[in-house]
UniProtKB/TrEMBL annotation:
Biological process, per Gene Ontology: transcription by RNA polymerase II
Pfam families xref list: RNA_pol_A_bac (PF01000), RNA_pol_L (PF01193)
Organism name: Strigomonas culicis
Gene Ontology cellular component list: RNA polymerase II, core complex
TM ranges: none
Region of interest: Disordered: 294-322
The protein's name in its UniProt record: Plastid-encoded RNA polymerase subunit alpha
NCBIfam families: PRK00783.1
Length: 338
């Protein structure tokens, strides 16, 4: 098994970073496994406990604790912390498994109101850990009216999004097949300039370009393709063409696996490259554990009980006969203009 990052682009935006990369050399299940690990199994930090000693604001204690719990925290420190359940302190809490902080805010009697922002008011004992936000003043927690006070302590712990969604380091991880687009120049040679322009404009993603001087249609940005099939539509004026204009395939690597394009959007709690490295590490550790388990007991696989959902037998796999036997197309999900 080999994971190969073919192309890697990083874009920084207000709330975090976006990473786009190509993955090849792995099958669909591994690629989807990587996506799911990025979503749910990267350890990050979150506020786990809030002790409120004074709250005269209009928000109930529970609401303030809930709002604090959802604050994203920069989480590079998570790699060096223990999970509370695995810590030698047995979850009681120590400097190896938790970080503490506090927030004290008050609206003076001579002011109408004060907005309390987490980034300004929350003091965390570890300078490596801080709230992340796209706003300058950070996340707005509550507004205090004249003479109202808020005083609380927090405990930050490490966990993963399988336990609670607030630990998710990404806003989204999108995965799609990389495209292999083959144009048929002979088909375009039989179209006039007007029809070529119309055909190029049909693609909603700007994949194709047309040069009227050379009468050439080219693939400008194959990676932008979303497999919408617009370019192979046979609606007028592109019905009854003598030959196909384009073939759009899912791209395969030399080892016969499909290639994938990933788009990972971080919330800002971890650098997006770190999310990718951590996901690969988590997946590798899982496979290592499985391999070790099976090598200790080679017959373990035979004894694994399967559990049909709701008592129903598992549905048989039905091959797509129509797709497989389509003339001249070996890939059952590729489509051609006909
Ligand atoms: S399927 Fe064709 S029309 Fe649709 S995005 Fe891809 S290239 Fe463009
Ligand atoms: Zn501990």
């Amino acid at each position: 098994m080999k994971v190969k990052i073919v192309d890697c682009q990083r874009k920084t935006h207000m709330a975090g970073e976006t990473l786009e990369f190509q993955l090849s050399g792995v099958d669909n299940s591994f690629a989807n496994g990587l996506r799911r690990v990025m979503l749910a199994e990267i350890p990050t930090l979150g506020i786990e406990a809030v002790t409120i000693s004074q709250n005269t604001s209009v928000l109930a204690d529970e609401m303030i604790a809930h709002r604090l719990g959802l604050v994203p925290l920069f989480s590079m420190k998570a790699r060096r912390l223990n999970y509370a359940r695995d810590c030698p302190c047995q979850g009681v809490g120590c400097e190896m498994c938790e970080i503490k902080g506090e927030l004290h805010a008050e609206c003076p009697a001579n002011e109408h109101s004060v907005q309390v922002f987490v980034n300004e008011s929350l003091v965390i004992d570890d300078p490596e850990v801080y709230p992340v936000s796209s706003e300058d003043r950070g996340i707005w927690l509550v507004t205090l009216a004249r003479s109202q006070k808020l005083s609380l302590r927090i405990v930050i712990r490490k966990n993963i999004a399988k336990v609670h969604a607030k630990f998710m380091p990404v806003a989204t991880v999108a995965m799609r097949y990389a495209t292999d687009i083959v144009l048929n120049p002979e088909g375009f040679a039989k179209l006039d300039a007007d029809k070529c322009t119309k055909w190029v404009e049909r693609c909603p993603c700007g994949v194709f370009g047309y040069d009227s001087n050379t009468h050439q249609v080219t693939v400008r940005d194959a990676a932008a393709c979303i497999f919408c099939r617009e370019c192979v539509s046979t609606e007028p004026p592109f019905n009854n063409l003598p030959e196909p204009l384009v073939f759009v395939y899912r791209k395969k690597s030399k080892d016969d696996n499909y290639e994938f394009t990933f788009v990972v959007e971080s919330t800002g709690v971890l650098p997006v490259m770190q999310i990718m490295y951590d996901a690969i590490k988590v997946l590798r550790d899982k496979l290592q554990r499985l391999s070790t388990g099976l090598s200790e007991d080679p017959n373990a696989g035979d004894r694994i009980q399967t559990r049909p959902i709701g008592g129903a037998p598992t549905a048989p796999v039905v091959p797509n006969e129509d797709g497989i036997t389509r003339d001249g197309v070996e890939d059952n999900l590729a489509f051609v203009m006909s």
